[in-house]
Amino acid sequence: MRRKDQERYQREYEELNGGFVEAPSGGFVDEGSVEYNRQLRLEAQRRAEDRQRRYQLYLKAQEQERRRTRTRRILLAVVAVLALAVAAGFVIWRSWARKPEVKSEKPALVNAQEGAVSRGEDTFTLLIAGKDKAAGLTDTILLGKFDAKEHSAHFYSIPRDTCVNEDWTTKKVNQYYTSAGGGQDGVNAMLAGAKKLLGFQVDHYMIIDLEAFMEIVDTVGGVEFDVPIDMDYDDPWQDLSIHVKKGPQRLNGMDAMGVWRYRKTYVNGDIGRLDVQHDLLKSVVKQTLSIGNIKNLDKIIDIIDKRVETDLSTGNLAYFAEQFLQMKEENVTFDTAPGNYNGMMNKLSYVFLYPDQWLECINTYINPYDVAISLEDLDIVYETGSGFAATSGQLAKNFP
What's the pTM? Predict the structure, then answer.
């Protein structure tokens, strides 16, 4: 074999195999020799193996591309079906949904000129209360406004120990429902009490059994929540057993109810419980607004329709659900009415609202009318330097 042919052969070999194949000890091999023929066979074999390897890689790449194409087609089909289902669902919702009527009469507000009072379009004021199954007390009370035009909702918790201007011996806001015997009479008493706190009659109400709250949480798939403290409490009289560990976790309905009701070891007492309730409500709102829970809205409405005392029809609830889905998480807020949370009267703990601060909250976030509410429109008890007074100018009986 000629030297230049041997060198060319060697370079090709190195390019193909990444290494140098040494010639036999005798130097260059002669063309036609046994060694020369062996090397040719090896070269042919390696070239064939290399072609086979490249062909297999080509087939694998082709199969992967076919799979990707098939997956994309399947995803597009699923998205199309979901889009059609959602579109069809919204058509059904729109045909089912009924905007609630505003039943409350326009209030005779002090600031109104000649009784001229109008209100914002598609705004609704609500009283939402959570009922204690054992004692019948409404320890959770929310007053707020649902704005379907601006797609926002703002609610204020009224602490259960808030002092109210009533003749009862224990003058706490959570007594309204049970003091009237519950049922519709209890609801009417709560609505009358809410009017004293707001200066106007709310449009609609919802009295929620806490078991309904549990069912709703389970229906939306539980709720992600960072529990602030270890919660351990048992009360056989209330059939209450709460055992929830501190830390982030997904709460089921039972544990969420326990977090909602727990109040024993908060540094700031019932106000600490309200703060946790607000955070929990925000988490429930976030979970409910997730795209995956659109399919569960009919189940949520069914729970409310069957287990909640309300003057809203199923169609009204569908309307609120439809509008609620258009809200951003940050446009749904929960706060606590401002006041002295450590007040005392007749050796009992009370919350005394700060009239001016509370009035600002009402006019900023709850008042649906174009006329500002004034202190004279309210009937709330507040502390003075020498005792207690009422914004209406007249205290009920039994105040010290």
Answer: 0.73
